[in-house]
Amino acid sequence: MKGGAAETERIVAEYIAKNIPLQAGDNILVGLSGGADSVALTLILHKLGYSVCAANCNFSLRGEEADRDTEFARSTAEKIGIPFVSVKFDTLGYASRNKVSIEMACRELRYDWFEKERTANGCSYIAVAHHRDDSVETMMINLIRGTGISGLTGIAPVNGYVIRPLLGISRADILSYLAMSGFGYVTDSTNADTVYVRNKIRNRILPLMQEINPSVGGAFERTAENLREAEVLYRYAVRHAISEIVHVEAGNVFISLETLKAWPAARTLLYEILKPYGFLSSQTDDILSGIGGASGLKYYSPTHRLVRDRKYFIVSPVVSSAEQTAEKDKTVPLSEVLHMEYVDTPSEFEIPKSKKTACFDAALLPQPLALRHWCEGDRFVPFGMKGQQKLSDYFNNRKFSVLQKESALLLTAGGEIVWIVGERQSDKYKITPDTTRIVKFSIKDT
Fold it and tell me: Using the 8-state DSSP alphabet, how is residue 90 labeled?
């Protein structure tokens, strides 16, 4: 980078003005490890007039080297003339207790503590020292592993309370700035370990790319900016498509198969619809192939179930097999759902035509009465017919969705099904001219 230290500070100030909602005089908690990037970040923010508090994390993973880094960070904060806070973590113990990787343990410990210190010190944001090369490495890692458009937009300048003011400059810019400013730094020995994917990219791949294009970092940055704008348009189009494809009823998500097929890139849209419910990209092809399959096909994420129905994919919270069995076997208190009354003057009674009521000959209706969910193999005699019919066939003929079948309630009398509540009653025990007493069931208003 041409120009002196002031030029670097100007470029960072311009990046902040364009990408980060900082105000003059804001209090900022800065992660200060003692490495070059964090030292430069701390010094630049201080020079730009922000009120800075330095925060150092010792993860107890590198013995004396980690303790050396903490002391160096402390002395750097003193040299700049800013407050300093530090913490020492039992990272290995945390990782073991929480069954996470060391890398994830460091991340969780760091950002949880940063947030506590941010609040305690009255800071508006937490600043971390990711720079342009880090963003390029992230883009390359995502590209190698396979990613969508958002994975190619690099590191975001703002994520909640976390800000990254140095994304507009490179590692070389940072080293030059520190040399011009008279500030030293420490080096983490693990940064050279090529066991880590990021280090392989940093130490091997990027130098080769810079031989082809010395400005490869800037090229990646421009690509990321273009893709960020493309992602805005993409998200807008996805939201519009989802509003046409999806509707929600009683906590269940209905995905119209006809509308989904009419949109271009149906696979991508289906993935975007299902992603919030825990479904993986690898499942999308299988689910999409189920559009032409039979109703009842089921797919599962850790939290939700997707069922292929006639016109819809239906997504609902997952219920375990044991819970489903218990629910079907469990009777529902009749008084919670139905109102029951007797009529002793049948000749004066007009049978309601509403599906919300069912009337029977009280003298013939066996006991006990109960409400339950349907099970495979259930049969009844539909009103107006003589022979029995499987409920599964009745549901299919009436084009019941899978969820309608699962939620259907049955009124039983002496173990016999006498009413699919709200749908159709049995022909058995119906009212005849010989009926002397009527029992009427009505669905209670909710």
Answer: -
CB-based burial label for 424 (10 Å; 0-12, 13-18, 19+): middle
Helix (H) or strand (E) run with residue 246 in it: strand 246-249
**3-state SS class at 68:** helix
Please provide the size of the chain in residues: 446
Q: What confidence tens digit (pLDDT) does each residue in 357-372 have?
A: 999 999 999 999 988 8
DSSP 8-state symbol, 191: G
Tokens found for residue 315: 């997504």
Three-class SS of residue 231?
helix
Residue 344 backbone phi and psi in degrees, to 5: -100, 5
CA–CA distance, 286 with 404 (Å, rounded to integer): 24
The pLDDT of residue 80? 96
Residue 45: how many other CB atoms lie within 10 Å: 26
* Dihedral Cα 428, 434, 438, 440, nearest 10 deg: 40
Q: Is 219 annotated as a binding residue?
A: no
* 408 CB neighbour count, 10 Å cutoff: 19
Backbone angles phi, psi at 416, to 5 degrees: -90, 145
Q: Is 38 annotated as a binding residue?
A: yes
Find where tokens 């207790």 sit. 97
Q: Confirm whether residue 182 is marked as ligand binding.
A: no
Which stretch of DSSP H or E encloses residue 199? helix 197-200
pLDDT band at residue 117, thresholds of 50, 70 and 90? very high
Q: Answer yes or no: is 278 a known binding residue.
A: no
37 in a known ligand binding site? yes
Residue entry with tokens 């066939």:
393
Q: Quick one: tokens of 136?
A: 């390029």
